[in-house]
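Folded chain entry
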Amino acid sequence: MDLHEYEQVKFELAALLRSAAACDRQDPQGRRAHDELVRDLFSRLAEDRFNLVVVGRFSRGKTSLMNAVLATDRLPTGIRPLTSVITTVTYGSREKAVIHYQHSRIPEEIPLTALPQYITEQGNSANRRRVRIAEVQLPTELLRRGFHFIDTPGLGSPIVENTRTTERFLPEADAFVLVTSYEGPLSAEELRFLEDTARSGRRVFVVVNKHDMVAAAERAEALHYLREQLSALAGLAQERIFSVSAREALAAKQAHDARRLADSGILAFEHALIRFLVHDKSREFLLHTCRRLSGFLAALPPAARDRFGAPLAALARRLDAARAGATPVLAAGAASPAPAAVAAQSGQIGPCKICAQVTQRSYDFLRVYQYDIIVDPQRQRELAERGGLCNFHIWSYETLASPHGICAGFAAVLERLAAQLLSTRRDDCLPEAECIACAERAAAEAAAVATIVAQLRQDPETALRALGDLCLPHFRLLAAAIADPDDAALLCAYEAALLRRVAEDMRRYALKHEGVRRYLASEEETKAAQRALLLLGGHRTLNTPPRQ
């Protein structure tokens, strides 16, 4: 089971709970207790997160490691967070920093570049700004899957409050990452931290950074020394020591270089993190949820128990059997040459490119045309001969035209239709209008499709990134125009990744809504309903039926 499969199981549990709760509403007995249990289960599913606390002395490369795992260079490196402020890195639809204060419920949004003014001793001496948590939001896929990276002050800091801040946060941690380096593998402060966390029973991953800066023999000697130091600490297994080069890992991911990525050592570390999340933590969380949901079902009428009990038991069996190794999400996609899934991620998404171009061209045409049919007799005659506009474009035209313009431009249309009615046989019907606006729209769509097909041949990744939320009507037009099977496959992969991503956001939003946790929803999740309808039907100015 990987992170995607784990999340799908969570959605399946939410769907079962939703249906079972609807059945329960028909039985008034014990409704209040059942409703409280339903809300609590939804809340726990909605709040599910993995707190990964990163610790280490200054210059060890903590931020570089976080950048490498997240495949981004947006976390500022080289700053020394000496104030007693917790810095969290979470998912956001756009890049920003949010400051949460100790004595205020109103957070402050700031540019990411301004973060040092709030978390460093130089910018916020003795935490005079009274910052409680500095939250960095990044549109990075691993964070979207539930990881929260937390950077705590303390190790090697001369400020006593920093250590206290770190200690207070210990209960919130699911695991720790201690980042050290080959420059000095284990300091006294780091050893004390390992002793404390080993006694607490928390999982600790030890990362030795900068292995690209030492020879293989020096690397082996340093790792041997580190293992000897850790061997006396109960609960710290040797397989949780990882030798990496965070700098090389980030460069390899950005260059899609699989060999360089493997040499960086980051893949083993990521694999261990995700395995711990899915198998040691999240799997138990889901099994516990299954048990609680089973208890809820036991109070339902027999028909409902039979209806929902079987799929719930099947889910529990799947979870109990899921003991194989997890697939690291970032490792699988970081060096892949296929751009479809990457292009479908949040940072590149905007309106459907074809919808946008056609909408603009249709608007420009009608804006000019509504004036032409007022002042140009030839245009008036052509409009009358065509039978006017189609039902849809009649009302698009109406939004731009004045009563005077409609009367001056369309009187000839009605007169010609009246003449046709008087001269035709009773069993004949008036023909549909040959809408000039429809012809203009078709020409605009054909031009946009041809441009994208040419771009796909020249630079597939750039072309896919520019497509935005490609709606299904225009996806069908584009797919039909592509002759190259490889380009067609790329387009299908892009659209599939986009549809699946929006579906996940919809399920997350529904879960947070039902768990009374809408404040946890990202911008993408909040907009998921509208995005889904636009994907299915295209932009309303192109596809809305005529008013009745």
Observations:
- The mean pLDDT is 84.
- The first strand starts at residue 50 and ends at 55.
